[in-house]
Amino acid sequence: MKKLLKITFTLIFTTIIVLGFAMPNLLTGSAAGGWYQQFLPNLNGRTISDIFFLDSLTGWAVTPYRFQNDTAYVLKTTNSGDTWFIVNSRIGQFVGHNKVKFLNSLTGFVCGVYQTNNFEGLSKSIDGGSNWVSIDVPNVTYNDLSIYNEDTIWLAANESLVGGVYRTTNGGATLEQQFSGGNQNPNRIYMYNARIGFMCNSSAASPNIYKTTNSGVNWNVNLPGEYFFDIHFTDSLTGWKCMPGVIAGDSSVKKTTNGGVNWFKQTLPSGGIITAPAIGKFAFVNADTIYGVGSAAFYGGGQFRGIIFRTINGGNNWLFQVPDTTIHISSYSYAQFVNGKTGWAYSQTSGVHTINGGDTNWVLGVTQISSEIPKAYRLYQNYPNPFNPKTNIKYSVKSQTSNVKLIVFDILGKQIAELVNQKQTAGTYEVDFSGNGYSSGIYFYQLIVTNGMEVFRQTKKMILIK
Question: Taking a C-beta distance cutoff of 8 angstroms, is the pair 155, 142 a contact?
Fold first, then answer.
């Protein structure tokens, strides 16, 4: 057995040397390519409250209520966000849009602030957003909406007296109130299909997540003491929820595989330049590939840059990158992908766009545990080992400026994870590896440090036991 392992390891190491590795282009303190800047038109100090893309070209954005006697805008792009123009404006004592959704290039809905004889909470457009008609009667300001089809829509309103969950099944001709809970009234609602959905008030002051399995006729507490900013299911059992504000010891992202009965934590990159890892908005490609925004990286001197997270294995491992743009965006509030390559991440005033899925290098947060200059490069044995499901890997870098790469291989020599790919100064670092999503067995991790003509490589074995 020892002889077989020695032969296998020799084959893996030889293959690695033959293939070589590309130099990393995502550096600590620098940023990733693959994204480019986009700008909104002059909105006279207003910010956007929501953004929605129907396809790779066509999208809409809306502005919220600011104060009395203001103007609310609907913006549109037909060239992937490279140019935005105002297609509708509303002027009134109380005007503002909270959410926008379109079913096709012509039919869309916005919800927001109620105003008699002007904008009554929910409006519909049938000409691509140029004109809007109020379609509801209740004197309610809606925070969120979930659309099943042109006839069936759910709305959430967190006003304690007249708020709750409202539903229409005839395109807004009539609305029925399905839930009224006072200070528990929701400002978030999500329907996976015509029957199953979730809602909550995204406030730590009144946290409870409710679920319905009968189209909203009944809502029952699904997860007491918690809330979400965004939630998404890929089937009736598998879903993710996130919240930007994290309670100590909790996680920003959680996943369920049994319809929300149980939720388990997922770990985001942390340490280094990441100030507080959290996601407030998802962008789903499929059940494996998910993007998320809501955190920032600190670059010193009071400068923050928005982070984009990504997983390609359903959240078992999350990596991150910081888009490199001319105007440094401090954080992103909205994100959407219409396919595996085309996506957007926007702040309230500008955003970034990619047509290739972002930079090719995604990295995991790394913690520097010592700045003392080591006498030599070193890769330590992971601890614990064997492990289940998480283990810690420590390594030392002796040169002041080095390109560092830490990768994980399975027993067949296939790379399964890239834990580090960045420029680092001298010191000792540690990073966690999660075995979630991987089967029991022998794995190898390799440290590659490049400093000019000097290249250091060291590989060690670890064992995952489930």
Answer: yes
pLDDT at 248 over 70: no
Long-range contact set of residues 125-131: C-beta below 8 Å, sequence gap at least 24: 125/88, 128/76, 128/87, 129/60, 129/74, 129/76, 129/87, 129/88, 129/102, 130/87, 130/88, 131/88
Interval 55-107: pLDDT, tens: 999 999 999 988 888 899 999 999 999 999 999 998 887 889 999 999 999 99
Task: Please give the pLDDT value at position 299.
Answer: 72
Among 59, 60, 127, 132, smallest CA distance to 92 is for: 132
Number of domains in the chain: 2
Q: Are residues 94 and 130 in the same domain?
A: yes
pLDDT tens digits, residue range 429-449? 998 887 866 899 999 999 999
Amino acid letter, 113: V
103 and 46 in one domain?
A: yes
Residue at a domain's end among 324, 354, 384? 354
More reliable by pLDDT, 22 or 70: 70
Token pair for 217: 């006729």
Q: What's the pTM?
A: 0.77
Is residue 16 located within the same domain as residue 103? no
Closest CA to 242 of 224, 255, 225: 255
Are 381 and 301 contained in the same domain?
no
Coil, strand or helix: which one is 365? Answer: coil
Least confident stretch, 16-30, 182-196, 417-431: 16-30
Residue 229 in tokens:
């900013």
User: Which of 298, 321, 354 is the last residue before a domain boundary?
Assistant: 354
Q: What is the CATH number of the domain that holds 128?
A: 2.130.10.10
Q: Is residue 31 part of a domain?
A: no
User: Helix %, strand %, coil % for the chain, to 5?
Assistant: 5, 45, 50
Same domain, 313 and 217: yes
